[in-house]
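Review session, final week

We close the course with one last complete record, chosen because it touches almost every idea we covered. It is MADF domain-containing protein, a protein from Parnassius mnemosyne with 74 residues. Go through it on your own first, then we will talk.
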Amino acid sequence: MSTKEWEKLIDKEMLISLVEDRPVLWDKTLEKYKDNTASIAGWREICIILMEDFEAMVQRQEFGKCLFYYLTTF
């Protein structure tokens, strides 16, 4: 699935809200911000919420990359 196809599936407002609820993903003043494991866990939580079958998806990594791309191109 292409990035454009993934974008159609993502609720922008929900994605923004989910990221805002996880400061470990954006607040550089937090010690946990430097913790790669915490960051990955935060993104995994978001992916599971946005795509209920995320854990079963063959294209998990592609979906995660799409989310990151989507957020950085606002």
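Two points worth writing down before the exam:
Helices lie at 3-9, 12-20, 36-50, 60-72.
Residues 3-72 form one domain.
Good luck, everyone.
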